[in-house]
Amino acid sequence: DTAVSQTPKYLVTQMGNDKSIKCEQNLGHDTMYWYKQDSKKFLKIMFSYNNKELIINETVPNRFSPKSPDKAHLNLHINSLELGDSAVYFCASSQESGSQWETQYFGPGTRLLVL
Amino acid sequence: DQQVKQNSPSLSVQEGRISILNCDYTNSMFDYFLWYKKYPAEGPTFLISISSIKDKNEDGRFTVFLNKSAKHLSLHIVPSQPGDSAVYFCAAPNSGAGSYQLTFGKGTKLSVIP
Q: Are the Cβ atoms of A90 and B44 closer than 8 angstroms?
């Protein structure tokens, strides 16, 4: 069983379109994350979300919005896609434990190409 | 502003030898460090971690060393195996209101030559 899964694995789309990437975790974790790996291979946090709050990295454009229908899912919706959005997007999850850091488990990534 | 730096983009090591991957950080508030391993077309997987109260943590062939005064950590793999060939990311958590977001280095691609 895959612990953290993402769909689709590949996404090719035109500039200006709106698209969503889905993420599901079956680990029973409380907190989920979205990371972006750009062309320079930097992995950067975009959002972290649990049932209490959403924490947004201030560099993320408001065209990006996470949506969580339930605790096991955190989908990433992107409006008006731009060329610079082309990247690999990774979902991750961890157990919420307050002051102690917990291991984050990553999905396989979604490779987005905007033409 | 790179708070976690991996200055070597790649490293080649002969099978059976030691691999040493280095990482530097600038944020003195970091108190926990992790190494993640990533194969092509897969997500990063957790490898080993170290708390700032320790200077060494060992798990099988993998050992992480932390030098707080130099803001430097390193991952040692002994002996290196071809299956260790992957990209290794150094990371540190930033705590934000109870949610721990990871700051990653740029990664070092390790190639273990049979």
A: yes
Contact B106 A94 (CB under 8 A): no
A106: Cα separation from own chain's centroid: 10
Burial per residue of B43-56, b for 16 or more beta-carbon CB atoms within 10 angstroms, e otherwise = bbeebbbbeeeeee
What is the CA angle B29-B30-B32, rounded to 5? Answer: 145
A46 contacts A57 by C-beta, under 8 angstroms: yes
Report the percent of chain B where pLDDT is more than 70. Answer: 95
Q: Smallest CA–CA separation between A104 and chain B, in Å?
A: 7
The pLDDT value recorded for residue B97 is: 52
pLDDT digits (tens, 9 = 90+) for B16-46: 999 999 999 998 888 899 999 999 989 999 9
Cis peptide before A8 (omega within 30 of 0): yes
Question: Within 13 Å, how many C-alpha atoms sit on residue B52's CB side?
Answer: 15
Q: Is A45 on the interface with B (CB under 8 A)?
A: yes
Closest chain B C-alpha to A20 CA, distance in angstroms: 19
Query: Is B30 in CB contact (< 8 Å) with chain A?
Result: no
Please give the share of chain A, as a percent, with pLDDT higher than 90.
63
Picking from A41, A55, A99, the nearest residue to B101 by CB comes out as A55
Beta-carbon contacts of residue B42 (< 8 Å; ≥ 6 apart): A108, A109
